[in-house]
Amino acid sequence: MRNLCVLSDRSRDIELPGKSAGEHTKLCTDSDTGWLYCSREPCLLACISGSDGQVLWSKDVGAELQQGATVSSLASVPELEALCITASTGELLLLSANGQHLEEVGAISGGIVAAEWSPEGEVLALISGHAQLLLMNKDWEVLAEAELLQTVNQPVPARPLTAEKVPADVRLAPGDGSIAWRGDARYLATNTRIAPGAPRVVRIWDREAGALHAVAGEGRLSDPGSGGARVLLFERNGLQHGGFDLPTPGEVTGLHWSPDSELLAVIWMRSNWHWYLKQEHRYLCATHVAVAWADTPPGAPARLHVLADQGGNRTLERTLTLGFDVDCSARGTAAVVDGARVLLTPLGLAIVPPPLAAVAVALAAPAACVALRDCGGAEVLAAATADGGLCLAPCAREDFWDEEADATDYDHTGFDAAHGTDIEGEEVPVLPALRVQLPGPLADGRPVRALVWAGERTLLAVAAPQPHESAAGLGDCVIILALDWGAGGPNGAAAWADVEEELGVEGRVLRAAAAPGGGALLQLDSGDLLTWSKGAGLARCGAGACFGTACPIMRATPAAALTAPGGGVLPPAVGLTARGSLLAGGLTLVEGATSLAVRAEGPGGAFLLFITRDSQLHTRPFSALAAGAAPEAVPPGNGRYPHRGRERPMGEGKCENLYSDMHAAMRGRGADNGIGAHTRAVEEGARLNRLDLNVLVDHAWPAFLGAAREFVAALGDDQALCDLLAALRPGSVTAPGGLRSVPRAPPSAEDGMRHLLLSVDVERLYRAALGMHDLALAYMVVSHSRRDPGEYLAELARFAAAPEGPLRAHALEAHLGHWPAALRALVAAGDAHADAALQLAKDKGLLRELMAAQPEGCPRRAAAAGALGEVLAAASRPEDAAVALLAAGRPEDALAQYCLAGEWRMALALAGRLGYPPARLRETAQELVDGLAAMGRLGDAAAVAATYLGDVDGAVALLAAAREWRESMRVAYAYGRGDLVETSLAPAAAEAAAAALEAARADEARVAKYLARYAEGGAGEEAALAAHLLALAPAPRRLTEAAQLCELLVLLGHAADAALLQAALSALVAAQGGAAAHMRAHPPPSAQQSEGGPATAKAEAGVQQAEPVAWKWDVLRPVKPP
């Protein structure tokens, strides 16, 4: 019984480059940035800022496409930080989010008719012009490919169908196909026709298998003769399950599900397989309208973006934030919007299960928002309509709407034709609404988002600003309407409304509610509260009364509870945030609430009621909140119930106490038969609390029979008497132990299942039953749900066909995606299924789990270890792969992986353990030398060459190339090759010294140049110069190599050259250290905000880098001149 409420409505006029693409206009959103992307003709793309409507960039991609191409789909892929574009000529393009880089990632032969990403953004489904269905991942690999126009003889045919007459050469054109994914991305549907005018066929495909799952019946989505269109809904077995007709003529150009599958734009909502038209937004000057849903977090309000082309470059950009709430009067009459009718159900009199209702109020146009109020003792419905009108529907007596409909002589033939009075096969009484005469369109054509009764003859309307008003920075508008319905009152033949006041609001009004004492409460999107009252206008509430955060659901605090007897004061409203925080002003009452209600009056006073995520109903008296009691509410049946000014334990449940209350009230003032002047009040209390009305007679049965006449007179209401007579049945509600003395059978499993299905999702229960491996329980879930059992029967039959035991458990766990459990079941099935278990472990990354499930020494364990080694090797983890292969008993393969990893010690040790002959050992050593040298590990390569190959010349050359001067000399003399010091090391040292000297002098010059520019303070470049100066600090490795080089030069008799090199490096260290000290004393502006900023810290680190390295030889230091 929820209605769709517009929490925010922002619109603005923007100018887009290029011409409108009409029905080819595509629109999508970026969930990370909030940007909008749209396509224009011919192949122009534009990016619009979601915050201010500015066009951030535009790009023509036509140059990358073939002649005559159009954009067939547009989607933002946050993981790729790009826009995915498909063209009718077959190109697949990726455009970076900033519009700068365009890349063609693929091409589809025959062109692309339709494309759609899965809800989680992992798989792209495409229909090609050659009637092929392709599934691709984000790496553009084809996961599955299938013929689109397959025959109807499939595993799960919806019904016997005649075969499609498919021509030999099929060529689909744009508009001949579309794709829709199911919300969980397990299935997708294609809707295709083989030629314009041909019937469309819906096919359902399994994503995992990439195969056809079912085929739906042939049929047209619109009937040209009707002037309108019909939307059809299909289950995944292909059966049609409901649908609805659009109320106005036109062509359906697109259907867009919201991310949670609750809403279908343009905008319809489903409940109990009945489709409610919740909102209609008209764009009279638009040539085409494109919509896209924003990807909002679960539980957050939905957000819909609209682009309406208005000719030329002018486009209306509109963003609607949508939520759900109930419209219910204080008496309990629920109003449900369903297009141009409002379904009313007085819940205080009878509970009518949705989508049925007690009466349907006929409006002139679809309702935008409604409001209910008691006026002069009777309820009145007010409705703002999509065409800018205002309608009223009064009830003559309290909330007896069905009586009002029966008493009205209304010819609703036209209404039946347009909207229907038949709901799910049941005829609903129709009550015509009275159209209010206004001086002009309601709110001057602004979109009206909320209506509130602010007095008996006063309506308050909240309207969103027009685009030009938004551009001027204006907020929402509040319009006060004064109603006049003449001498006949609300039930008269005419009504007028004048604008009494028009007020601007600084900001956006999120929710509005009628204030108990008259006037209205307005909540801004910041959580602040405003009050409006006649004569006082708008006033802001104090900080303690405001929520402090947005509450999409808000209820006014009852008047009787605003001031408690103890002097405590409650805030004027309670609210519920999107995250489930229940607030009273700034006070958080409870977390995890899902819905909220207020009972303004009745036995026990005003009560706050809410439901939590565990489907528990909680109640709390407002008096306890005002008295400062603990904010946690009391669940029914587990706490205390307020009873005649005091509290007592609930005992056996709330109903027992209420029945006792009724007994005491009926027996009041000493009357043995229980008849008193307060009989009417007791009857009303029983009805309001949903008690069995038998309590009115059972409390004194059979003595009650002697006072029946007095009871009827005291009751004083024919309808109440009829309700009692209809409720009478054998047994007594006063019997010990509960409700009735008539024995009742204990609840069955089916009863429990039906009760559980009221609050738990069917799919969740079904999967839980499969997880228990109980097929009978799974079938019970399906059979007691509102879903078609045929959707699941083929699946359950397949599970039942598997042998009971491990194989059936494997099938069930695999279906549920519980792969570790599926693997354990397959292992338990025995050796006959060892290969299947190994393949499953490979596919799902469960090889270690497979090893753990096998005993030590088992061949299957070794096979799993070997497979793990191969997987690790393919993942470029050779060292891990080698250990796994050793565990698998494959030392040769392990040795190869050790070689790839450069672990020469383990490789050569393993070669020795395998008993390699000398020739093969040398071959392995040579491979290691080559591999280590290629990795840049020259020292390790030299060690292997000298030790295992006896190649001292090669080893010394490798060490010299690695600048390991000490080690190179040690190796040369250790192997008796001192000649290599003169013939190999000396030339290498001379070349290295010359290069080091040149590099030191060049770096010193750079330090001086950058420091001079830093001191000049060039605008905007201080930070970059500081980074350059820090990077010029000699690294410890460089200084260590230089020290060893100087040492070798002294050994070779070139002390002067060594001193020259050390002096150059000393000058570089000193210059860089001085520059760092200068930066520390004069940090760049970015680091001046706080002492020790980024540049200062880096400078200190740069200075400290050189200090710990002891590298300058004392003998080579210059002598200071006298």
From TrEMBL:
Concerning InterPro entries, the annotation shows: A-sol_ELP1, Beta-prop_ELP1_1st, Beta-prop_ELP1_2nd, Elp1, Quino_amine_DH_bsu, TPR_ELP1, WD40/YVTN_repeat-like_dom_sf
Coiled-coil ranges from the UniProt annotation: none
UniProt region (Disordered), positions on chain: 1078-1106
Please report the stretch or stretches of sequence annotated as the ELP1 TPR domain.
Answer: 812-970
- Any one Gene Ontology BP term: tRNA wobble base 5-methoxycarbonylmethyl-2-thiouridinylation
- List each copy of the ELP1 first N-terminal beta-propeller domain by range: 1-150, 176-293
Q: Where in the cell is it found?
A: Cytoplasm; Nucleus
* Key words, A-Z: Cytoplasm, Nucleus, tRNA processing
Q: Which GO terms describe its molecular function?
A: tRNA binding
* Cellular component GO terms, alphabetical: cytosol; elongator holoenzyme complex; nucleus
Q: Which family does it belong to?
A: Belongs to the ELP1/IKA1 family.
* Protein name (Swiss-Prot/TrEMBL): Elongator complex protein 1
Q: Which organism is it from?
A: Elliptochloris bilobata
Give the organism's phylogenetic lineage.
Eukaryota, Viridiplantae, Chlorophyta, core chlorophytes, Trebouxiophyceae
